[in-house]
Amino acid sequence: MTTASPRRTFAIISHPDAGKTTLTEKLLLKGGAIHLAGEVKARGQARRARSDWMKIEQQRGISVTSSVMTFERQGITFNLLDTPGHEDFSEDTYRTLTAVDSAIMVIDAARGIEAQTRKLFEVCRLRSVPIITFINKVDREGLSPFALLDEIADKLALDVSPRMWPIGMGGTYEGLHRIGDATAALPTAVQEEVELAQVGYPDFDVEAYQHGDLTPVFFGSALREYGVDDLIDAIATHAPPPHALPAEPAPVEPEHPEVTGFVFKVQANMDPNHRDRIAFMRLVSGTFRRGMKLTPTGHGKPIAIHSPILFFAQQRELADEAYPGDIIGIPNHGTLRVGDTLSERADVRFTGLPNFAPEILRRVALKDPTKTKQLRKALDDMAEEGVTQVFYPEIGSNWIIGVVGQLQLDVLLSRLDAEYKVAAGLEPSPYDTARWISASDPAKLKAFVDLNKGAMAKDRDGNPVFLAKSAWEVGYVADRYPDVTFAATRER
Prior knowledge:
Elements: E1 7-14, H1 20-30, H2 55-60, E2 67-73, E3 76-82, H3 90-97, E4 102-108, H4 115-126, E5 131-136, H5 145-156, E6 159-162, E7 164-167, E8 175-178, H6 188-200, H7 206-210, E9 214-219, H8 228-238, E10 247-248, E11 260-268, E12 277-285, E13 288-289, E14 293-296, E15 303-304, E16 309-312, E17 315-318, E18 321-322, E19 327-331, E20 341-343, E21 349-350, E22 354-356, E23 360-366, H9 372-385, E24 389-393, E25 400-403, H10 406-420, E26 424-428, E27 433-438, H11 442-451, E28 456-459, E29 464-468, H12 471-480, E30 485-487, E31 489-491
Parallel strand pairs: 1-3, 1-4, 4-5, 5-9, 6-9
Antiparallel strand pairs: 2-3, 7-8, 10-21, 11-12, 11-20, 12-19, 13-18, 14-15, 14-20, 16-17, 22-31, 23-25, 23-26, 24-25, 24-28, 27-29, 27-30, 28-29
């Protein structure tokens, strides 16, 4: 991008199978980023979308890692962050949502609000991320438009303002009507529905939407491209541009003249031929230019960024300039990590990118003992990416992997084999949960660690971690040691 055109940086969130990947592809098609939409094949065959590049994604037809795609349409630069829909990858999705200014929530017209949709919405609410709702698959049999709107309002405690109305659903579907257009040509029943919707739901209020209190609702079909143009026009017209983001010592405005940004994701081996490692940075302020030097927090030494890249899934181009709201990739070899702030003066640190305590713990069993070094590198790489967390026990040599969901373990084993040529298995762990520990008095922390060596480990950063057999044990031990803090999250 060579000019500071308006930016819209947004994510797409949904429950699995609601049509997120198809909608992503059609937005890219409408934006001119691709010329031919990928084929969504019959059930049982691999679904291949341009944003799903990892081997396990192609095999299973699911997104398991966040992708970034940049495109332009009618003078606006869109930065689309495609997130994993599966709940087992909620940590990656959470961090991605820290890097966007708005989101599209995709809902299946036949299923309504589903569990993962609700979880992701709550993450958006925590950060007051404005949401546009797209009710997908209206060309199939589903719930009535009123039932869907009322469910969104009731379950999410969110005002809804329909912007489109389906003329029939499923087998009776005939098209879409824009709310506010003349209704004289519509069938009488549809006229009555539209009039009732206009009276029964709030008018669209841009300010309420941008504060996260109201969601404009669009109906359509991503597969058939119904309603997609109106959706992307709504993002262009109403979604907020880059704004101030939380930081210490104070929030940083996009107008701040010096370049600042933060790393919200690290991805290794996007190009297996080059064994590369890319840090994804959200630019928050200033005009970034290729070759400039930025200082990462915790590093202290400026690094020159000679080959920053813009993404279209796996395709890349060098970024000579970037502006607030843009996502750029920085090739590096372990220098940059998730949560790092990069700035010209190293006097700012962006906040709000936590690690979450894992819900599943497993021991790693290496099948070839000569591959210990490769295994450690692989586990460290994937811990940096957020695929897993890795804990190194104080006693014993079996490293422990922590994840939020079972599918992450499948991804771990698949990538160990495909990218690192390491054959490994997973065994039950005697532990059920993990907590980061700290204390204001170093002597009391050391005393606790010395007395509980058998349950102590370190994470990949060397922070002390207490491994517990159950949540009950965490509570019991915490009561016995009131001067020690047991944390389920840790700021990166």
